[in-house]
């Protein structure tokens, strides 16, 4: 599953866009430097019912922003994405390529 597909699935499961979840994480201080992934994963599991795989996709965005390594763009790998920039504002508003 691509990083973007994980973020899209998070939106499907929670009804919240990745950007909305990032805002919630910020309100809780979970985007602060040094925050442990486990703290974010616990919050996502308790409040939103998300598992580790989906949670780690959001942890990546919290720590690194919406950019992913170019090795994940194109190709045929399991985690390949169409772009090196993840769309955080919801599936309905994502521009078509």
TrEMBL record:
Region annotation (Disordered) maps to 71-97
InterPro entries from the UniProt entry: DUF4287
Its name, as the record gives it, is DUF4287 domain-containing protein
> Which species is listed as the source?
Geodermatophilus nigrescens
């Amino acid at each position: 599953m691509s990083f973007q597909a994980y973020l899209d699935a998070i939106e499907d499961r929670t009804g919240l866009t990745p950007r909305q979840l990032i805002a919630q994480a910020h309100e809780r201080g979970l985007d602060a430097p040094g925050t442990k992934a486990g703290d974010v994963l616990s919050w996502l599991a308790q409040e939103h019912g998300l598992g580790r795989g989906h949670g780690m996709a959001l942890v990546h965005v919290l720590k690194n922003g919406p950019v992913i390594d170019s090795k994940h763009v194109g190709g045929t790998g399991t985690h390949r994405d169409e772009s090196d920039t993840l769309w955080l504002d919801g599936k309905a508003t994502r521009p078509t390529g």
